[in-house]
Write a structure and sequence with these properties.
two-stranded antiparallel sheet; 3-stranded antiparallel beta sheet; alpha+beta; N-terminal domain of TfIIb; binds zinc ion; 26% strand; 2 domains
Length: 85
């Protein structure tokens, strides 16, 4: 009985199947996507995961923000120098 818990009806071949998992993608800034495939006909039943790792993006932005601030500051200073002339 407990083995049937993971079984779902495949919309491709109509069998009750345990989906085969296929992971792809993923990296420093994004999560891996998990595809749930039918082991008999191979269609993708559904996908989970994926998306952007916002934690990593925010950390990256925090680390690069001093450079951005410095760049903007220099730009503004150059502009105000132009205007005060
Ligand atoms: Zn199938």
């Amino acid at each position: 009985m407990s083995g049937d818990d993971n079984r779902i009806a495949c919309r491709g071949c109509g069998r009750n199947i345990v989906p085969r998992l296929w992971h792809y993608g993923g990296g420093r800034l994004s999560y891996a996507t998990t595809q749930h495939l039918c082991p008999f006909c191979g269609i993708v039943l559904y996908e989970t995961g994926g998306g952007v790792r916002w934690g990593c993006v925010i950390i990256l932005l925090l680390f690069s923000s001093p450079f951005i601030v410095l760049f903007v500051f220099t730009l503004v200073r150059e502009m105000t120098k132009e205007f005060s002339r």
